[in-house]
Amino acid sequence: MNFANSINDAIQLDRVVFLGRTLSEYVKFFDLDLSQWQKAKILDCPAGAASFVAELHQMGIDAVAGDLFFNLDAATLQAKGQADLAHVIERLADVTHNYNWDFYQSIEKLSTYRQSALEKFLADYPHGRQAGRYIQTVLPKLPFGDRSFDLVLSANLLFLYSDCFDYAFHWQAILELYRVCSQEVRIYPLQGKNAQIYPLLDNLLNDLNNAGISAEIVNVPWEFLKGSNQMLRLWR
Ligand SMILES: C[S@@+](CC[C@H](N)C(=O)[O-])C[C@H]1O[C@@H](n2cnc3c(N)ncnc32)[C@H](O)[C@@H]1O
Question: What's the pTM value of the predicted model, to 2 decimals?
């Protein structure tokens, strides 16, 4: 279903923002039952300023976060995270009609969630980076061996920013996420910032099928950007 009238109706961001969600949000948009993954090794890529890996670590679950900017120190990421949060909040005000506010209720509460994720991420980052929990990754390549992770999650980059990437990038990145997983890959959302479904999704599903990779579209109990209540799931 098309909820936005045109690309001009999309949130106007001038960059891929360094922002993050909390574990409670990840659980919803990936429809995760963490009791199934207690002994698993999990990759979150790109992780941005999400607190997902930090919170999993506190629960004793083995997880690694990868992002383009994890070559930077905590102070630089804090400044970037704050600037990008301010940019998103300012631009979101123009397109609130593209979003469902059942969960967040208001831009202010959404900002509180993003701020909380940023703070929990920053609290874990210095030690976590030394421990190998935060690793610079530059998609469409990943610096990990084949089947290094049981579960690989990728949120709010690939299809969301599809205006920034071509099909070759998507294909290579998805093959790479699949290469490093031994069980499942989940990618969310399937929409671009304009709330339109990724236009080459059928192509992609066809190419995955031809490559012998099991793939399906799965409903999830989350819909902030209108229509974005599905993820792509690949499995072995
Ligand atoms: C909007 S954040 C999403 C973070 C997190 N997954 C979430 O849902 O909260 C997008 C992230 O993608 C990262 N990024 C952009 N291009 C990338 C690339 N080629 N390889 C790895 N990370 C990239 C950015 O640095 C940014 O942190």
Answer: 0.96
Is residue 11 situated within a structural domain? Answer: no
Kindly state whether residue 223 falls inside one of the protein's structural domains. Answer: yes
What is the domain count for the chain?
A: 1
Sequence-ordered list of residues with C-beta below 8 angstroms from that of 104, at least 6 positions apart, any chain: 110, 113, 224
176 three-class SS: helix
- At 9 the pLDDT is 79
The Cα diameter of the chain in Å comes to 46
Percent pLDDT > 90 in the chain is 93
Q: How far is the CA of 186 from the CAs of 91, 211, 232, in angstroms?
A: 28, 18, 6
As a whole number of angstroms, the distance between CA 178 and CA 183 comes to 9
Distance 46 CA to ligand 1 centre (A): 4
* Alpha carbon of 171 to ligand 1 centroid (Å): 17
Nearest protein CA to atom 16 of ligand 1, as residue: 68
- Cα separation of 232 and 188, whole Å? 7
Distance between Cα 8 and ligand 1 center (Å): 22
Sorting pLDDT into bands at 50, 70 and 90, what band is 139? very high
Inside any domain, residue 17: no
Print the domain residue range for 79: 25-235
CATH number at residue 135: 3.40.50.150
